[in-house]
Amino acid sequence: MAEANPLGEFFREHLQELRRRAMVVCGAVLLFSILAYGFAEPLTALLLKPIFRALPNLKGLVYTNLPEAFIAYLKVSVLAGLAAALPVICYQVWRFVSPGLKRDERRLALFVSFWAMLLFVGGALFAYLVVLPDMLFFMLGLAGERLRPLPKLDAYLAFVARTVLAFGLAFEIPFLMVAAGRTGLVAPGYFRRKRWYSYIGILVLAFLLVGGDPLGAVLLAGPLVLLYEAGVLLTALTGRSKKGHNPEEINQSR
């Protein structure tokens, strides 16, 4: 009779647990998406507010394919379902990884998750409340007597989702910089010395995140530069508090 393989049994149990938790997550997303579809029209109206504020005379958006409106509502419902199921997703991920963590590592994981989520929500709100109205006002301001804007529903919602996601991820920059400095992945003063290279990278990244829109890239690059400088300052402060008052390290960071 063949002996049981402890390692294989270990991986089998973890895969089964991962499967169970993945099924719970998928079920939660599906359930919340179905519920959100009942509110798809008011949710879409909420996403349409920035464009109507930018161009009050705009009568409405158009769609050129028959299923386009249905698919757009379906996408909005899935996004709302993902947002509503986020606590369930975080809880399932936490229950899966927490047994293998020590007490200090659990506290650190909770701290990291809290600030990462807070910064992402802050970036998304900044994009929706500040950036989108300015971008849309500029773009729609190009219209005239011979140029009439006819924005499509699906394209507009994709533009809003991409912009909000881009700013949400961009607001994670200071947090990632501090984490890299605290864990020793980069040397003290690294981000300060690489400032101008980072600015070029920020411009390229902003251009890619907004889908090649020059105005959107500029509006995204500005906050990214400020966030980068905030990360430089926070990395220096947290690095000094961790390393103490070593003159050699302080001079190196300069």
Structural write-up:
By secondary structure, the protein is mostly helical. The protein has a domain of 126 residues. It is built from eleven helices and no strands. Helix 1 packs across helix 3. It is flat. The N and C termini lie far apart (67 Å).
Q: Which structural traits does this protein have?
A:
single chain; 254 residues; mainly alpha; 0% strand; disordered C terminus
Q: Whole-number radius of gyration?
A: 23 Å
The ordered H/E elements are HHHHHHHHHHH
Biggest β-sheet: count, sense, barrel?
none
Unreliable spans are 240-254
Q: What is the number of E strands?
A: 0
- Count the DSSP helices: 11
* Quaternary status: single chain
Percent in strands: under 5%
* Overall mean pLDDT: 78
In percent, how helical is the residue content?
over 70%
Task: Give the structural class.
Answer: mainly alpha
> What shape does the CA trace take?
flat
Could you tell me how far the N terminus lies from the C terminus, measured between alpha carbons in angstroms? Answer: 67 Å
Summarize this entry quickly.
The protein has helices at residues 6-37, 40-54, 68-84, 86-97, 103-140, 153-170, 173-182, 190-193, 195-209, 214-243, 247-253. It has 254 residues and is mainly alpha-helical.
